[in-house]
Design brief:
Structural class: alpha/beta
Helix content: 25-40%
Number of helices: 3
Largest sheet: 5 strands, mixed
Strand order of the largest sheet: 3-2-1-4-5
Distance between the termini: 15 Å
CATH class: Alpha Beta
Mean pLDDT: 91
Number of domains: 1
CATH topology: Nucleotidyltransferase, domain 5
Radius of gyration: 15 Å
Strand content: 15-25%
């Protein structure tokens, strides 16, 4: 399969926000923003165990929200701050639909939607 027809996506993310870019349809070669996802985080709880469980539940919900924009992804480049990219890579590897998806990662500061689309396009060229 040629590089041009692969379902390629990019995600900039931190613990609370993600921006998903990809090709809007198979006919276009331009990357554009497909969606945003958010994670408000767990409310403080008197039980540390319950707060941790809430955080994990919300994190998985956040990851599912991100992946909803990347159906049948073949290649994904994750970038952003913190360790969220690595956690999403592990989550994808444990999800049957995404276990064969080629994932790469890098670290970058937050950027505008347009700059992110250009950055991700450069990663796949």
């Amino acid at each position: 399969m040629s590089q041009k027809n692969k379902k390629q996506f990019g995600v900039w993310m931190d613990t609370h926000h993600a921006i998903v870019v990809g090709k809007a349809n198979a006919d276009t070669q331009e990357f554009s923003v497909l969606g945003h996802a958010g994670n408000a985080g767990a409310e403080p709880n008197t039980s540390e165990k319950n707060e941790h469980n809430d955080e994990k539940t919300l994190q998985h919900k956040f990851f599912k929200e991100i992946l909803a924009h990347m159906q049948n992804a073949e290649e994904v480049h994750l970038t952003g701050t913190g360790t969220s990219q690595e956690q999403l890579m592990h989550y994808m590897a444990g999800t049957p639909q995404y276990k064969n998806t080629v994932t790469t990662e890098s670290t970058s500061n937050k950027m505008s939607d347009e700059n992110l689309a250009e950055y991700i396009a450069g990663k796949f060229n």
